[in-house]
Design a protein that fits this description.
Strand order of the largest sheet: 1-5-6-4-2-3
Strand content: 5-15%
Number of strands: 10
Shape: globular
Low-confidence stretches: 1-7, 51-58
Mean pLDDT: 91
Order of helices and strands: EHHEEHEEEHHEEEEHHHHH
Helix content: 40-55%
């Protein structure tokens, strides 16, 4: 359901625009060219997303007779064009083909569906069996992946800075979770609400990876986009929930700008008010809560965050303190005034966010 009166005109990408802006200014055309084309692609898709919000997106229902507890996936190939959705290359139940990118996209859609169903009883992105569509091989050397409000889209990367965007399953989970947020709290994509929007996607993207690998909170790497950066890049991922600000420190990309606490909160007009930057603060709070609780992070910490996202009390313009306060309330309601409550309260205290 949508709890806040209509969808925000959000176009969400995994690579922040400030990263592509930096690449676009590089003197090496092998780096600047793909980044500039990617920014142009994103600008076009962002405009199209706003138009879709105005005129309305087509309603998509699961096929007749489709089981609500089974995914309905379709993967398309854009053939390095910007035409969506492209040519259908794999559908639900068909065998893997020779294109590894197609197979990874198909598997990632399934992994996301499974985590939400098995852990939280959610039936696809909209909780009503929404078909999961994805397009691969989008654009020429396109350096991003995005959810456009209706489907997933993956670029192949430029092979200089970024590799194929279907490689990290958490990237797929991150982007599809923007769809979950779209259908629930519908957080405004600017400032602290926007950073919460991004953080929620990082949280569940990481949980999808952990669920797929069968990892406990202690075993997880808590990296977003590990395996996405090309060998020449000095870095491990796009973001780190365990240690925000340490994911990369590279001559070309610069240094990871994410803060871990409110003391280092970044005030900027870029990136919709720093939505990909300040998301490090609630990301770190989740990491601290999840590791303090132990076990599988999707079971307790993930349940608390899911309760807040879908509970109907989270306002679209919620600040960090609002979200934190609701996690405390959700923890108390589900687990009482025990270790779980103390872990969540301490996590927010450690990142400098007050709870009421």
């Amino acid at each position: 359901m949508t709890t806040n009166g209509g969808f925000e005109p959000v176009f969400c990408t995994i690579v922040p625009p400030h990263v592509l802006d930096r690449l676009a200014r590089h003197e090496d055309p092998a780096l600047s060219g793909p980044a500039r084309r990617s920014l142009e692609h994103d600008a076009y898709q962002r405009t199209k997303r706003r138009l879709t919000t105005v005129i309305g997106a087509p309603s998509v229902a699961p096929p007749a007779g489709a089981a609500a507890d089974r995914p309905h996936r379709t993967v398309y190939d854009a053939g390095h064009t910007q035409d969506l959705p492209g040519t259908k290359v794999r559908e639900e139940g068909s065998e893997p083909g020779s294109d590894a990118t197609v197979n990874r996209a198909y598997a990632g859609l399934g992994a996301t569906f499974e985590l939400y169903l098995k852990a939280y009883g959610r039936h696809s992105i909209d909780d009503s069996g929404l078909p999961l569509d994805a397009t691969v091989h989008f654009g020429e050397g396109y350096d991003n992946a995005f959810w456009n409000g209706e489907q997933m889209v993956f670029g192949d990367g430029d092979n200089e800075i970024f590799l194929d965007f279907t490689i990290p399953v958490d990237v797929i989970g991150h982007e599809l979770t923007h769809g979950v947020t779209q259908h629930t709290a519908n957080l405004t994509y600017f400032g602290q609400p926007g950073a919460l929007n991004e953080s929620v996607s990082d949280v569940f993207g990481s949980l999808i990876k952990q669920y797929t690998l069968g990892q406990t909170a202690a075993e997880a790497d808590w990296l977003i986009g590990a395996g996405l950066l090309a060998p020449r890049v000095t870095g491990t991922a796009l973001r780190s929930m365990k240690a925000p600000g340490t994911a990369y420190d590279d001559d070309v990309l610069g240094k990871d700008p994410q803060p871990a606490t409110m003391e280092d909160y970044v005030r900027t007009g870029r990136d919709n008010g720093g939505v990909h930057i300040n998301s490090g603060i609630p990301n770190h709070a989740f990491y601290l809560a999840a590791t303090a609780l132990g076990g599988h992070a999707w079971e307790k910490a993930g349940q608390i965050w899911y309760d807040v996202l879908t509970g109907g009390e989270l306002k679209k313009d919620a600040l960090f303190a609002d979200f934190a306060t609701l996690t405390v309330k959700a923890t108390r309601e589900r687990y009482g005034a025990g270790d779980e409550l103390r872990a969540v309260q301490k996590a927010w205290e450690q990142v400098g966010v007050r709870t009421l």
